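Summary for the steering committee. The consortium agreed at its last meeting that each partner would contribute one worked example illustrating the joint modelling workflow. Our contribution is presented below. We chose a case with several input lines so that the handling of multiple components could be demonstrated. No manual editing was applied between input and output; the record is shown as generated.
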Amino acid sequence: MLRFILKRLGLALLVALTVSFISFSLLFLAGDPAIAIAGESANAEDIQSIRELYGFDRPMLVQYADWLWNALRFDFGQSYYFKLPVADLIAERLSVTMTLGVCGILFALFTAVPLGVIAAIRPNSLIDRIALFLSVAGQAMPSFWFGLILIVIFAIQLGWLPASGASSWQHFIMPTVVLGYYAMPAIMRLTRAGMLEVLSADYIRTARAKGAPEGRVLFKHALRNAIIPVVSLAAVQMGFMLGGSIVVESIFALHGAGYLAWESIGRNDLPTVQALILVFALFYIVFTFLADVLNAWLDPRMRSS
Amino acid sequence: MMLRSGTAAIALMAAGAAYADKASDTLRVAFTKELESVDSYFNSAREGVVLQRAIWDGLLYSDPATGEYKGNLATEWEWVDDTTLELKLREGVKFHDGSDFTADDVVYTVNFVADEANGVVTQRNVNWMDHAEKVDDYTVRIVTKEPFPAAIEYLSGPVSMYPSDYYEEVGPSGMGLEPVGTGPYKAVSVEPGKHFVLERNEDYFDGPKGQPAIAKIDVRTIPDVNTQMAEIFSGQLDLIWQVPSDQAERMAEMGQFTVANESTMRVGYLAMDAAGRSDPENPFTKLEVRQAVNHAIDRETIVNELLKGKSTPIHTACFPSQFGCVQDVTEYEYDPEKAKELLAEAGYPDGFTTEFYAYRDREYAEAIASYLNAVGIETDFKMLQYSALRDLNMKGEVPISFQTWGSFSINDASAMVSQFFKHGELDDARDDEVLAELDIADSSIDPETRIEHYGIALQRIADQAYWAPLFSYNTNYVFTKEVAYTPTPDEVLRFHTAAWN
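What follows is the complete predicted structure of the assembly.
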C-alpha cells in the first residue's frame, strides 16, 4: 500500500508541475497584460513602463522560474486588480468555495446514493421512475435557472432564505442544493447501475443463500463493490465544483474562488489567475489521489494495478 | 445578465412585498462590479467614483444640475497666470481621523498623484498638474504643466484631497482598506470587492454637497442583475442601478418601485481607420465610404428599441453637455440608398467585406452590423475583451470598431474629442488640421476661443466622417417607494443627496 501511495504521489506532483507550466504559458498568449493593467486612459509610454515595472519584458522561462520559486513559498505576488496579496485573496475566497463544494458534494452523495440503491432494488418501480426523472431534470436544468427558481420561491415568496451573500449558514442552503443537484444525477445513475450489476453477481446469491440478512447483503456485500466507481466520480465532481461553481457563486453573490477566477480572467489579473489555476489543479490532483487510495482500500486488487 | 427577459418574467410572477430599511436608517445598495480599490486614484470604475464622492471632497464642486462651479474644500480660486491657480482653503474642516485639513494636505496629495511614478491608474485625471505649492496654511497654488482651462472641471471631479500624514503612512493599499477623507460619509467597513459600509460624517462641514440625510449606507456587490432584483423584491435592498432597460420597464409597470432614468456621459460610436493604419488601401480611407457608414445606421431606431430612456442620437465626437461640444455640425440622416450610392461612388458598387470589432454591448454591435450589412458592407464580427481590442487598436490593426467612451464624467469636450484626435495611438484619423484646432482649444483660458476652436475641429471631424457618432447611454435606477433620490446625468450615485420619503 505504501509503495502504491508513493507512486501515486510522485505522479501527482508531476501533473501539478505540468499544469502550472501550461497555464503559465497559455496566459501569456491571451493578450498583453500591461494594457489591461494600464486601463483605459493609458498611452503607449505608460504601457511600456508598466511592462518593465512588472517584468513582462523578460524571457518567459525566467518569469516562470521566478513565479514557481515564489509560489513554492506561498507567495503568489499581488493582484493587479485588487492591489492585495493574491495568497490572502485566494485564502479568503477559497473558504467560501470549499464550504460550498463540500456541502454540495455531501448533499449530492446523501441524496444520490440512497436513491440509486433503492432504485436498483426495485427496478421499474415508482421510486425508480422518480429517481430517473430527478436525474434527467437535474442534468437538463441549467444551474442559473434552477437557482433563480429557488430564489423566487424561497427568498421572495416565502421569505424563508436570504437570496444572496455568505454571512450565515442559511445563505448556503440554496447554493448547496443547486450545486449538489448538478452533481447528483451522475452519481445516482452510477450507483444504480453498479448496484444492479453487483446484485445479480454470484457472491450475492451465495450470501443470500447462506441466509445473510438483506441489509447486510445490500450494504456490506453489494454497496461496497458498487461504490468504487462512485468514489472516483465524486472526487472528479468535487474538483469540478471548486472550479466550476462560477454560475452558482455569481447568482448567489458568494464571492468565492470560482467567481474570482472567472472575473480575474476578464480583468487579465495574471497573478490571481495563475495562482487559482494551480490551486484548482492541486485540489483535483489531491481528490483524485485520495479517491485512488480509498478505492485501493475498498478493492485490494487495485493496489497491484 | 443571463436570460434577461425570461428571468424578468419570473421576477414579475413573484409579487413580494418590498419594505425599505428606513427603520434602521440604512440605505442598502447593490454594485454589480467588484470594485478593485476604494482609493479613488487606484480604480477606474464608476463604482469607485460613487464611493469617492461619498468619502472624499474635491477643492471645488460642480453643481450636477446647473454645471455651476462652487467652492468646496477651497472657497476662492483665481488664475494668477496661464498655468498657476491660487486657491483659498476652507478653514475648520477635519478629516475622518480627526486631523485638520490644511494646505499641506493639498500639496501632498497633488504632488503625490501628479508624479507618474506613483502609478495613479487614470493618468489623464492628474497628469495636467505639475505640482502644488503652499503659500500659507490655508492658501495653495496648483501649477499646471501647460495652460489647462479644464483644470476647474477636474478639480471639482476626480481630484480629491487626502490627509497627508495618513496617506504617507499607509499608501494606496492602506487607503483602499481603511479610507480617510473629509466627505459626507466615512467608511466603517471595507471588504475589498464585496461589501462596503459607510456612516454619516456627523462633523461634515457646511459645504455645497449639503448634509447627508441617511445615517448609514450598506453596499453589497451582487454580480447578477436578476439576483439584485430578487433582493429588492424580497426587501433586502433599497436601491439598485444600471438596471437593463427591458427589466426596468417591467419593474416600472408593477408600480411597486420608483424607476428613474437618467442619461450618462457615455457615447457609443464607430471608429474607422481613415488614416489607413490597418491597410493603406482599406475602404475606410475613402471619405465616401465613411459617409456611407454614417448614412447606413438608423440611430433613432437603435435608441428607441434598444437603449430607450434618456438616450439620444449623437452627431458630434463628444457628449452634448460637455463644455465646447458644439452641436451645429454636419449630420448624416438615415438613408440606406444614399449609403449605397456613396459606396458605388467610392468604387464599391457591390459593397465589401471588413472585420468589425466590438468589446461591449453585443446587442448594439449586432444591430449596427446588420445595418452595415444592409447597405453592402459585410461584417466579419469579432467581439473581444477590452484589453485585446485596445491592443489591436494601438497597433493600428482595426479597420472599423464599435467603441464607447464615458469621459470619466468630465464635463468638458477635451475629455473626449481631444482624447482621440490628437495623433495618439488610438487616433485613426491623424488629421493635422484637427490637431491644430484642438491644441488651441485645449490650452486657451478664454472660453469663447475654446468654443470656437472645438467647433472648427468637431465640424471637420463630422465633414470628414472620421467617426460615426451614434448614441448616448442611459442608466436606470430602481428604488423602493420609501427612498427619495434624483439621479444626475453624470451617472454618479450621490448618497448624500438620497433621503427617506
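The radius of gyration of chain A is 23 Å. Chain A has 14 helices and no strands.
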